[in-house]
Amino acid sequence: MPPAAALELRQPARPALQRMPSSSAGRRLRLESLEQRIAMDAGGLAGQYFHNADFTGLAAERVEAIDFAWGTAAPAAGVGADSFSVRWMGQVEAKYSETYTFRTVSDEGVRLWVDGKLLIDAWDGHTARVDSGTVALVAGVRYDIRLEYYENIGSAQIRLQWSSPSQPLEAIPAASLYQPEEGLRGRYTDPTGGSASRVDETVDFAWPGSPAPGVAADNFRAKWTGYIRADHSEQYTFRTLSDEAVRVWVGDQLVIDNWDAHPTATDEGSIALEAGKWYDLRIEHFDVAGDAEMRLQWSSERQTGAGVFQTVPAANLRAGEHAPLYFTNPLGGGADPFVIRWQGSYLHIRSTGGSIYIDKADRLEDIHRDNPDSTSARAWTPP
Is the pTM value of this prediction over 0.90? Predict the structure, then answer.
């Protein structure tokens, strides 16, 4: 099915999205060759529409504010009216330094993060309802924001609103919303309290000294968060060159894990990616002493050529705070049993006969010690 928004490649060097007028339902996104920029202009969040309710099957892309009541109509050309999902990401800027209430009106599931904090988590099938959460914002500061939505069947709507003591309740306007910046959000810290935050275009560093102003040259930690986008649907191999420790997550999969102090080492891990889709990317690194190095590269048959590794470019990266999910036991704190989702699988923690067992399955409905699609292990036995 044809996407609702097409991409025209004029030059591969340093692309940036140019938005078409917001009144166009079949809006086109054109890639222009532009000079280096600091941040995107206001105009909306970057939205990706998927054919399925689990964020697979990329169908359309738009830049927009979120105030939709589709009813039983399709949300975009080429997308079915039922069983679809949408993810919007970017930044939001408030006019007042106050505590803001973010409000969603949704039918069906919705999640909202602001500045990496999960404010709304109503990820269940429901008819139209209102959910809200609060966060303190500083006027003129841009905060990362991410909204996820899915529709199963029937009428569909999703609206993103805000209010504060000085801000009447309204749909958040496009003028207060921005697309994410190119690169990754980097945070650097040391044990003495030194810290720095910036957007790094790529992760391709060899530091003979301090990695950032105000941060010690030794015994520091670095963390990069945001999104990564592949140009082709195929298997990608990620490679790190690190001195010292490194961990890399793509989506919810830990693809590289060498979390110990070591001299310069090369590590690799592979994952299948869908072309055009923005995946969560998180990289962690620490250095103990001496020179430090951290490089992120990738390879695939059509992206770089088989066996050829290149630094992941800024054009395929977008900065953003990590958006974790927090799990609350519906039976109450410390109650038994407890189910969480971890690295793509569901884990069921239970106690039997004084011992603790963990059941693992790819699907929640398969978790049971007697189900052949579920594996079980005894995690703890009383002495």
Answer: no
